[in-house]
Specification:
With 315 residues, this protein is mainly β. The protein has two helices and 24 strands. 10% of the residues lie in helices and 49% in strands. It has a six-stranded antiparallel β-sheet, covered by helices on one side. A five-stranded mixed β-sheet has the order 4-16-13-8-9, with no helix packed on it. Strands 19, 20, 21, 23 and 24 form a five-stranded antiparallel β-sheet that branches.
C-alpha cells in the first residue's frame, strides 16, 4: 500500500517540477503573461508503471514587442506554477521536502523547432495543507536570431524532464523520475508573440483622409427691384439669392408672373451672376392692377433651395 502511495506521490511531485521547467524556457512577455495552460504528463515511476497527471502554469519572458531583422536576442524568463494542496501534500508526505532536476523543452517559433533546456533549482515543497507555488527564473539556452520579418508566435507543445525528490534531512540519494508532457487537447500553447521589423522595408504612403465637402447653407431669395416701363409695356425685375453667410449663391431661379390667378407669359428661368443676381424683362404688360412675382431658387451644391413672392402694383 505504501509503495502504491509513493508512486502516486512521485507522479504528483514530478509534474509540479516539470511545469516549472517547461514554461521557463520560452514564456510570454512582449504582451502580457500567459494564461493557465493545461498539460497532460506521463511520469515513469519505474517497473513499467506510468502515472498520468495534469497541471497549470503562468509564465512570462523579457522578449520586447519588436526586434530588428538580423538581430540576436537573449531570452530571460519567469514562471509561476500553482499546485493544489491535495497533490502537494502527497508529495510532502511520501517523497520528501525538496525537488530539483532538468527539463528539455520542445519550443517552437512560428512552427520551427527552437529547443531549450532549463534547470529546476532545488525547491521546497512548502507547508502542509497549502497549495504549492513554484517561481522559476532563468534564460534560454540560445539567443533568438531574427532571420525573417513579421509576427512571431512562441509555443510550447511538449517537453520532458528528469527530476529528483529528496528529504533535506537525509544524505541518501533521491530517486530519478522521467516525465513527458504534452499540451492538453484544444489548449492554446501560445506563450508569447512579438514582431520582427525590417528597418530597410519601404514605408507605405498613408492614404490621405478626404476632406468632407462643406454642408449646404440656407439661402434667402428676394426680389430686389420690379420697375414697370409704361411706354414700352415692360416689367423689369431683379432677383438676388444669398447664402446665410452673406455670400452670393449660384444657380438658377424660376420666375412666374401672375395677375390674380392668371399666369402672364411663360415661366422664365434666369441664371444668377457672380454677385448672386439675375434680371428679367416681362413684355406686353399693359393692364393696370396688382401682379405677383414668384421667385423659386432651385438650389446648388453649397446652397439650399429658397423662394419668395413679391407684389407689384401697376397704375
Amino acid at each position: 500500500m505504501r509503495n502504491s502511495s509513493l508512486r502516486r506521490s512521485l507522479a504528483a511531485g514530478a509534474s509540479i517540477a516539470v511545469a516549472a521547467a517547461g514554461f521557463a524556457a520560452f514564456a510570454p512577455s512582449a504582451t502580457a503573461a500567459s494564461g493557465n495552460i493545461t498539460f497532460n504528463c506521463n511520469l515513469d515511476i519505474g517497473g513499467g508503471l506510468v502515472v498520468p497527471s495534469d497541471f497549470t502554469t503562468v509564465a512570462d519572458t523579457n522578449l520586447p514587442a519588436s526586434v530588428a531583422l538580423g538581430s540576436s536576442t537573449p531570452v530571460a524568463f519567469t514562471s509561476t506554477i500553482t499546485v493544489p494542496a491535495t497533490t502537494a501534500d502527497a508529495a510532502r508526505n511520501l517523497l520528501g521536502d525538496t525537488v530539483a532536476g532538468t527539463a528539455s523543452i520542445a519550443t517552437t517559433i512560428n512552427g520551427a523547432a527552437a529547443p531549450a533546456t532549463a534547470p529546476v533549482p532545488t525547491t521546497s515543497l512548502g507547508a502542509a495543507g497549502t497549495p504549492l507555488v513554484l517561481s522559476i527564473a532563468g534564460s534560454g539556452t540560445a539567443n533568438y536570431v531574427a532571420d525573417t520579418a513579421g509576427t512571431k508566435v512562441v509555443k510550447v507543445p511538449n517537453y520532458t524532464a528528469a527530476l529528483v525528490f529528496t528529504n533535506s534531512g537525509s544524505t541518501a540519494a533521491g530517486t530519478p523520475v522521467a516525465v513527458s508532457c504534452t499540451a492538453a487537447t484544444g489548449a492554446d500553447t501560445t506563450v508569447d508573440t512579438f514582431t520582427v521589423t525590417d528597418p530597410n522595408a519601404p514605408v507605405p504612403t498613408p492614404t490621405p483622409t478626404p476632406t468632407p465637402a462643406p454642408a449646404a447653407q440656407d439661402t434667402t431669395t428676394k426680389v430686389v427691384k420690379a420697375t414697370y416701363k409704361k411706354k414700352a409695356k415692360k416689367l423689369v425685375t431683379l432677383v438676388q439669392v444669398r447664402n446665410e453667410d452673406k455670400t452670393a449663391a449660384a444657380g438658377d431661379v424660376k420666375l412666374v408672373l401672375k395677375k390674380g390667378n392668371k399666369k402672364i407669359g411663360k415661366t422664365v428661368t434666369v441664371t444668377l451672376n457672380k454677385k448672386g443676381k439675375a434680371t428679367n424683362v416681362f413684355t406686353k404688360i399693359s393692364k393696370k392692377g396688382k401682379y405677383t412675382l414668384k421667385a423659386n431658387y432651385k438650389g446648388a451644391d453649397l446652397s439650399k433651395r429658397s423662394k419668395t413672392t413679391y407684389t407689384i402694383k401697376i397704375k
